[in-house]
Q: What sequence folds into this?
């Protein structure tokens, strides 16, 4: 690391280190001539003090932070994160604002990252994903006064503004559609049950089934990976009373589910219907194409960035906003179920 | 922005701001008792000076930088960038190192970003993508002494270590394979001809065609987007002497090319063969599956991160390394061409 240091500048300018420090910090203790020489050498060496650089941007770090609690290897496989980042960047790049990404192990590491980013002036605000029940991140961010926008909610985000996706409404749409197609045995391959949106979806699923007089649906947990979803799907389809329709928590897990169904000789959609939360190119490339609950993920990223800039500029008190609702896009993977 | 400031600490501790500054910077001018009180209040308020925080990490920023010269909206569509980031993160997360992402308009903006990151101690090094002919970034990074690893090369990277993909060899494999299948009229939907790897591929394509006695191949330029690739493919296929095989510079552009070929009523591979540089799930989900030149993109990201850490730790002089060669994976989109 050969970044120009105070010592480099001192050496080149032929003055002491403290003279350099005085000159660069515009403090008394050096002659005007020395100050000018030091500034010229510093500029020549490409040196810029932190404080001067920050002052140029009005004390801003010029970056926002996104901590990702996802195994690194999954980032490349699942479209959601990159589509969200793409939407964030569409707003950030217009402001020449950077994005600090940090993959973290768990919520504790995520909180430590927020503390460090804020204490070291590395970010002006953060985007928080996957709101939990009783989310410990909320209180920490409030205490730090670190501007933040939560994607999730609206309940449980304290004073932090949020963009709340309408997960219960999305699930309700799907279940009513499947019920209308004649499906009675539904299954749900769901993500982490500590996540607020998974709870909302699961509650809605069970509620609608109860209201419609359908049997109790099965919810099984699978993470974001292929392997986990494949295993969950195999178990569901090997059970004596296998479901006739499965709802997946992501597009990637649904694509894997389709592969497993075909591998097990089931005809989609004649014997089994499949639906994905999140739409992406993956859903449209498979055969049959996957029915999906679509929402504009880059649009949500851009909305989050705009809300975060507002929170950074105007301080706390920003309003939470609903995201646009999910749109159910029926494609080839769902069909009428006829009892045989 | 209510981050604790020197003034906040001064107010709470009941001392002057300069007393706080002396105490936090461990300079003379305050009593030991005051120093202790200031440090206690500062810690209580969650304040940490830049320099102290940096010192804890041995002067390191604890982050590396990646500037992306891609329109933000494309980041979500194309697997390459996210797979590369996924590979970088697999090494970064093990070291709790952050990744600073910045979407930039052009090379000039990218260079300005490097200067700013380095001057402000925001990154310890950078990964450079898409090496250009006479790349101006190389000289700037050398002058800054900013540790950097170039993905591309090995020629034209100056003293910077690089991971060079074997693009000429990959193209040679494909062309020889297509020639062996009976193809004579080849086309190449290529990216930016200022990029070194595009030049290498194009040169190899023309050279192998010449050696094999095939007609001069057609190279057309298309960016990374769907629209551009679709238009390029439509033009190629509408020409009187249309090619019997097309080689695309990315998986996404090849998937789009396949859609256009099917839309125009051509049978793949009977009337037209298609090959993609880069393999991903996209290639395996389409029908027919796309023949691809595969390389381990997350693996390359991880390799780049390891080389960058070595350059940061040990200083300049790190060796360039070849990436693993491309592997040609023939799938359903390529077949024997029979003259009709």
A:
């Amino acid at each position: 690391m050969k970044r120009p240091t105070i010592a480099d500048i001192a050496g080149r300018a032929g003055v002491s280190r403290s003279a350099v420090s005085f000159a660069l910090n515009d403090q008394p203790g050096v002659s005007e001539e020395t100050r000018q020489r030091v500034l010229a050498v510093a500029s020549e060496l490409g040196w810029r003090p932190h404080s001067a650089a920050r002052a140029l941007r009005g004390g801003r770090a010029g970056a926002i932070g996104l901590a990702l609690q996802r195994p690194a290897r999954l980032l490349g496989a699942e479209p959601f994160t990159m589509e969200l980042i793409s939407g964030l960047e569409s707003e950030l790049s217009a402001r020449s604002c950077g994005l600090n990404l940090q993959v973290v192990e768990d919520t504790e590491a995520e909180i430590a990252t927020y503390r460090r980013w804020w204490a070291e002036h590395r970010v002006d605000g953060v985007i928080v994903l996957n709101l939990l029940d009783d989310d410990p991140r909320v209180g920490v961010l409030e205490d730090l006064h670190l501007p933040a926008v939560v994607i999730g909610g609206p309940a449980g985000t304290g004073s932090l503004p949020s963009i709340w996706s309408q997960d219960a409404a999305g699930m309700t749409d799907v279940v009513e559609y499947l019920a209308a197609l004649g499906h009675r045995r539904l299954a749900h391959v769901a993500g982490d049950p500590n996540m607020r949106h998974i709870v909302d979806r699961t509650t809605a699923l069970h509620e609608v089934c109860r209201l419609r007089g359908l049997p109790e649906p099965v919810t099984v947990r699978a993470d974001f990976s292929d392997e986990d979803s494949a295993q969950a799907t195999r178990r569901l389809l090997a059970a004596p009373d296998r479901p006739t329709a499965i709802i997946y928590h992501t597009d990637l897990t649904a694509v894997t589910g389709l592969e497993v169904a075909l591998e097990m000789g089931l005809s989609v959609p004649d014997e089994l219907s499949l639906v994905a939360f999140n739409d992406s190119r993956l859903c449209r490339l498979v055969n049959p194409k996957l029915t999906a609950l679509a929402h504009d993920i880059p649009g949500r990223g851009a909305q989050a960035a705009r809300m975060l800039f507002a929170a950074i500029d105007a301080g706390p008190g920003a309003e939470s906003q609903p995201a646009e609702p999910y749109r159910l896009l029926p494609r080839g993977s769902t069909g009428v179920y006829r009892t045989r």
About this structure: The first helix of chain A runs from residue 6 to 13. DSSP finds 14 helices and twelve strands in chain A. Residues 167-294 of chain A form a domain with the Rossmann fold fold (CATH 3.40.50.2300). The longest strand of chain A covers residues 63-68.
